[in-house]
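Researcher: Going back to the complex we discussed earlier. I've cleaned up the inputs and rechecked each line, so this should be the final set. Can you rerun the prediction on the complete assembly and write out the structure?
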Amino acid sequence: MSLLKAAIIGGGHIADQNHIPALKKLSDQVKIVAVCGRDIDKTRLMADQHGIPGAFDDIENMFSEFDVDLVINCTPNNLHYDYTMQALKNGCHVLCEKPPAMTAAQAREMADLAKEKGKILAYNFQRRQTSEYLLLKKCQIEGQLGEVYHIKANYLRRRGIPGWGNFTNKTIQGGGALIDLGVHILDLALGMMDYKIPDKIAGNMYDFIGKTGGKGLKGQWDPVKFDVEDACFAYLTFPGNKSIALSCSFALNQKEEEIINLEVFGSKAGAVLNPFSLHTEVAGELADIKFPFLEETDVQLKNTTAFIDAISGKETNICLGEEGAVLQEIVEKIYLRAGL
Amino acid sequence: MSLLKAAIIGGGHIADQNHIPALKKLSDQVKIVAVCGRDIDKTRLMADQHGIPGAFDDIENMFSEFDVDLVINCTPNNLHYDYTMQALKNGCHVLCEKPPAMTAAQAREMADLAKEKGKILAYNFQRRQTSEYLLLKKCQIEGQLGEVYHIKANYLRRRGIPGWGNFTNKTIQGGGALIDLGVHILDLALGMMDYKIPDKIAGNMYDFIGKTGGKGLKGQWDPVKFDVEDACFAYLTFPGNKSIALSCSFALNQKEEEIINLEVFGSKAGAVLNPFSLHTEVAGELADIKFPFLEETDVQLKNTTAFIDAISGKETNICLGEEGAVLQEIVEKIYLRAGL
Amino acid sequence: MSLLKAAIIGGGHIADQNHIPALKKLSDQVKIVAVCGRDIDKTRLMADQHGIPGAFDDIENMFSEFDVDLVINCTPNNLHYDYTMQALKNGCHVLCEKPPAMTAAQAREMADLAKEKGKILAYNFQRRQTSEYLLLKKCQIEGQLGEVYHIKANYLRRRGIPGWGNFTNKTIQGGGALIDLGVHILDLALGMMDYKIPDKIAGNMYDFIGKTGGKGLKGQWDPVKFDVEDACFAYLTFPGNKSIALSCSFALNQKEEEIINLEVFGSKAGAVLNPFSLHTEVAGELADIKFPFLEETDVQLKNTTAFIDAISGKETNICLGEEGAVLQEIVEKIYLRAGL
Amino acid sequence: MSLLKAAIIGGGHIADQNHIPALKKLSDQVKIVAVCGRDIDKTRLMADQHGIPGAFDDIENMFSEFDVDLVINCTPNNLHYDYTMQALKNGCHVLCEKPPAMTAAQAREMADLAKEKGKILAYNFQRRQTSEYLLLKKCQIEGQLGEVYHIKANYLRRRGIPGWGNFTNKTIQGGGALIDLGVHILDLALGMMDYKIPDKIAGNMYDFIGKTGGKGLKGQWDPVKFDVEDACFAYLTFPGNKSIALSCSFALNQKEEEIINLEVFGSKAGAVLNPFSLHTEVAGELADIKFPFLEETDVQLKNTTAFIDAISGKETNICLGEEGAVLQEIVEKIYLRAGL
Amino acid sequence: MSLLKAAIIGGGHIADQNHIPALKKLSDQVKIVAVCGRDIDKTRLMADQHGIPGAFDDIENMFSEFDVDLVINCTPNNLHYDYTMQALKNGCHVLCEKPPAMTAAQAREMADLAKEKGKILAYNFQRRQTSEYLLLKKCQIEGQLGEVYHIKANYLRRRGIPGWGNFTNKTIQGGGALIDLGVHILDLALGMMDYKIPDKIAGNMYDFIGKTGGKGLKGQWDPVKFDVEDACFAYLTFPGNKSIALSCSFALNQKEEEIINLEVFGSKAGAVLNPFSLHTEVAGELADIKFPFLEETDVQLKNTTAFIDAISGKETNICLGEEGAVLQEIVEKIYLRAGL
Amino acid sequence: MSLLKAAIIGGGHIADQNHIPALKKLSDQVKIVAVCGRDIDKTRLMADQHGIPGAFDDIENMFSEFDVDLVINCTPNNLHYDYTMQALKNGCHVLCEKPPAMTAAQAREMADLAKEKGKILAYNFQRRQTSEYLLLKKCQIEGQLGEVYHIKANYLRRRGIPGWGNFTNKTIQGGGALIDLGVHILDLALGMMDYKIPDKIAGNMYDFIGKTGGKGLKGQWDPVKFDVEDACFAYLTFPGNKSIALSCSFALNQKEEEIINLEVFGSKAGAVLNPFSLHTEVAGELADIKFPFLEETDVQLKNTTAFIDAISGKETNICLGEEGAVLQEIVEKIYLRAGL
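Model: Rerun complete. Updated structure for the full complex:
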């Protein structure tokens, strides 16, 4: 089989550290032919360091010079839509960084175009690939959880407002803790509940700490420029009486430095994601089950592999365009109803 | 000062173990003159054991024979309204067991009548009297928490469906985990947020485990007769962008045998109720504050004392009729919107 | 149904503290009519304290005066045979303290006579009644362990040579750590492996510490009079390639004050008895299962109940005469091959 | 003094990672002149990487071209005998990997030939060189243990069947858990008991997990090709009433990932090897002694040093030919009596 | 042997709870004949409760009415001298509560008079009788500590100013933390160093917390009436280059609620008293020795027994008059040099 | 601004590993122009490795060839005075390693000359720069400690006599544990108490372990050549009734491998340095405050930066000449009064 030809759009850290190394580990299936970034000098440098032939600062030039099968879209949130649409129009499969887009309408369009073009559009929700989440899904599929009816989904940092990048700039990011952190854990929770649009959404957002300033644990942010939510709490009710309580924060006066977890409540068993445990009955007695030997995995490599597998028609667990559109619609609704 | 004359209505365990002993410790201020119960033989026995002169199975007989200043209402939930109204009409102060009533309208009427009669109507939310909650309130009043904007309120049992009494009978109890357990922690949470009616309420209720059966940790219940919620999750948004996430259960597949806690998030500090801790900044650094010597207190004695103090016109922290009416309205709305 | 009439033989601590209280809790099924002990004054005193009509120092007098349905034999080891045989001959069911007898031949005779008489002969191996062992057996029967092929059975004390009684006197006890402690754990292990005679037995016995003396944790013993084994290690191979490694000690230079445990190795799962845990695979991953809420039970009450149930023809898990004969034969063989 | 000339036989991982680095650290005493392996290309590569002049795939060619004083035999188990004999015949000292051989007769011949030739034949039981074992022996020699009478020797893995190499192939390895893992801990135990042939040997072997398959912790093995024991339990009685209980496994449903330990019971003190502790009496009270600062040592370097020292006539603690013959005889007897 | 006749002087808590129960347990050797207290009614009541024939509020009346062999002096500190002298003059042996007296001169007189009269004068430093201190002394005598050259002696409470009694009244007590708490641990430290007068004494005393007030852990004290030291730090240098660093406090802003400990540094080993451990070398390696089974003992009973034994001429470890005089001299010097 | 020109005196480990790397990180402010060491070859090599132009074995040659603004004095203790004086005379600022000198008179002269020359003389007490000590000082300045009245200052090693260098040679070092380790923690303690000369000094020194030998944890030292104190305990009383208890050791039979800590007792709060905690009252309750996120800092870099800042006239927390003179006077007095 001939190699798939890949192009990278967005020349930042996440391309350099995550996506390019993952693709290079799959060199028997894919070859990176070009990278396109805002700053042509830095882009050229990155291309040289990784042995990538093409370096561009204009995506159309790239498509005209190189034959590209798939694109990795690592641009800022506010560019996800434009470049993904362009790549799909150029007949490429796309693995786009999260969140899918800035609006629900954009994410809908992206999914529709991918369908129309018969191409794979996937989002890089790589936390689906942890051993813990795969085991959680396996337990659900094997029926050990019974019916899952309520999930607490948390991505909470005590003082983790990033002191770099554009994370506190609403125009570029589209929001704060919810769109940057919350989407990860919301994606996992939705994956346990058939990934549907909720009947009802309630919630609240806050910016007390972000706008006041204080000790930072991920560098110091500028409270004057802070215009996103530092914390978001939302409650989602789904058809069939299921529910998710979502909590996410950049900054919250809690004990823990960071909590990233799902607590899943099913009719036969409950599960905690990190560290993974089941809480159920065995032989008629209440039992707690631990898994002491779960392996830490290279989640980016596994997600990139899933993307490649999806292109070649295999069944995978990757987040595809339709799910991305659902997720974006939920995020948009939370911002509408709970936003600052 | 002459002694206050007290009567007990309801001759069950909670009268015998909690209220009568508390009143007897306050014998310099109050004297129990009568007890009224459904079964006259058992009531007489209890009266004799505690040295109480009168024993009745009819409340009007009691009022006609004895001059009563205050009444402790320890009847089942569905009788709270009737006996409290009767006691107020007879010119008594009333300390009524929780929950206030079966409906919001009842609780409203009770509060209004107490006001009209100029009597103290109080509810026995005795968890307000723990050292931890008193310290939490003190920290809030001293300004150490800043503005409190979100609270997670949990009263969660793994398998704590009571195997005795009427706890799984909706007609008598008015509900399950919410009205029996949730009200305690909701009362504490409301007390941190000015005790208002929420703008919006969302929530869900479940009965999977209750209706299926399984290993019990508080005796074995009968799943066939189980007709209340075994778990309730609710989300309350208050005027001024404040919020409470409430979770309560008789049965839930979680790790812990029982969780009774508040997590309070304020702009200057967060607090956890049990064990009590503050999470804040001290001298510009993130700090956790623990209080290793908090005393366990006799919360019933302290609440009964607060009731007596309220009668004599002192400022106390007891839950009065107005707050009871607010609480009951919230409970009713949760049942309406989230109920099974 | 009329009450069973019980007699106690042996007026010592174990009658007073264990057997009589258990029988009294079963007063709807059994009534203690007489007690027979060596010292008539002490026996009379015990009878009076417990409200037992008859007190004797001669068993035949007792049988001639009272109509007895069942006998509890709480005499020293070297009298188990005589009194059990006499009781069976008098047409009584017998619950005999462990060990069954001093020799395999005695235990065989006892089982045969019980069979001939159509009476229940049972031994008081009450550790069969712990929640942990009952759960272990349930897991085995439900197939969760797969085939059980090896067991490590330990009853090991660091310095637990009793400073009272006859525990270090071979003539009265028949041996030391094996016959006093080891039989308990051996009984449990055999119960997991069809209770058969082993093909091969190896082992060793020691008396270094017992004969030297040293710090005692159960009072001080007299090393000069010490003539039993202080430690015994044995290895049993059973038909069908199964095996038990047995270790027991009164005194051993180990870290733990006392170890009483089974480690059970099966083809599907392993189990540890105390605290109970399973070690297996769940959903394809290695898993450890804990049971945080197992209850401590009144093992003597449960074993006495099982004895009564056996008399009335019910299936129980009590150790009956045949199993006692097997156990005694194994003990005898270990003493023959491994003894000092 | 002129340098000793060393040759390596067997070009695998253990030569590359253990023996060659150890010899190079002793470059003031020894110089590696040649390496001989099955695959001449790989052997040449290894020789070049380590700066070793000679590379061969035929041992006789090696001996004819190079003058060799000592040989390190790192071949698979089934070649230990042939190459060690050849090396001895060529007048070399030999450090042979464990186990000594495939049969007791081979090990006996090897020891006899070494004696006849006046050469050092040693086996690479490098666990003798840990700080813990050296301290254990020192305590024994100083008399702190008193008489050592019983040892529990364990080398138990939960799921450690190697997924590589020939570890599950009986023809090449000679067996499974016993000959690969058990010999290490048996060597240590025998070293505490004068290294004698036992009077009696009992034991059992199993292959349930190995033949069924399951989750592996050292890669996945092929249950179809598995033809060795996955677990072995043996009980050895020695002259003078001493005993060893040996347990070893590739796979066993236990809690721990791996247990490698000795529990040593002496008349004055007991000792646990890992972490090292003594359990004894001090000043008339029961005492536990811990050694918080024992150093982790380079056991291969220390064992190779002991081999060189033995060649130059020094007293060392290395396992010599005679001990190897005893160990192999015991292993053979366990396989005969307990084998599958 | 006829029984010793004992009288109790001082009718407070320590007589009632400690000394009288201890004497009653020694009823085969001693009989309490009288008790003398300030308040004759309370004294009579105590005498009746304990079955003591005589009750007095005048010591001379007591001596005139009863023949007394020994006296227990449980009066407040400022009365130790007077009553002990009177008792000695009346030919009694005396066990006096600590501290010996208010001044060094008094303690010297008391010791001299006891000597002159040939009577036992002992002080109730009952912490000498703990298993830990007895073991510490045994280790010293057996030579395991080598030469003891430095001791850190601590009796430190975080907020343990007693809210009752006269503990904060200098006129009655003679001082604060040093004379009430420090003397206990100083006595133990001196007992490890030949109980000599130091060459040099340095130290400081403080009363910041005592005079300011704050949260109390032993009731609330009155800061206005507080006129003793709340903390004392002293450094003692003894002939032969030995030293003790003494720290004691009623109140100190430390983490621990209470620290009562000795750290003893010897040339061969160091020891910590609570929990007892040795830190030394065993078999050439640094070793920590713990004693997991030390028993909690009835220290008052053991000290009273020692007093009785001393009377009958046996060698004991009780604090006698001469040691008391040394201790009091040191205490006085610390107050002179370091006092407030 | 032009770069400061730095010279290094003393070509050992501390120059190579600490001072040169720190200066190179400040290359925008300072440039190393020369290094001067005893062994010209080694000095030349170090200079080349670090790209330093000049290498000398004579300081005057260095000053004559290079224009030097500041000098880092990393020579042995007995050369601190000579080279610092020479550097000051040559018009350089000096950062001198600790301790300041061998005698109080030297340190006084050094401080005076620096003052006279208008140059910065600083000592490298870099532990002042830890996050913990900076926070401790901040808490003191903010008033959270109240008045600090007693400090326990400990730098205690169990067996940390250095097995290399001159640490056990009094002629070169000027002493042992006190001058090498104790000065660090004494400097920190004095910094909490206005850095004054004490009114009174008591203390003792010991050399039992150092002169006897034993297991070393920092290599093996030679007990025959050991002529310094292995432990020093001192007690300092300051004007205004403040006190410091100082304990330091190279070797002491304690449990911990190493203790480096301050315990600070203030009227409002106490503090422990490592890990940092406060012990105080919050909201009227006793509270412990922990700081879970304090960062480990590059203390050498921070101290070198403080030195450079001091040169450019900024306020810093570095130890200057006057403080060094006070410290040296205290050290000298301790040696005079407590020395061996």
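Model: Worth noting: The longest helix of chain E spans residues 321-338.
Researcher: Good, that matches what I expected from the previous run.
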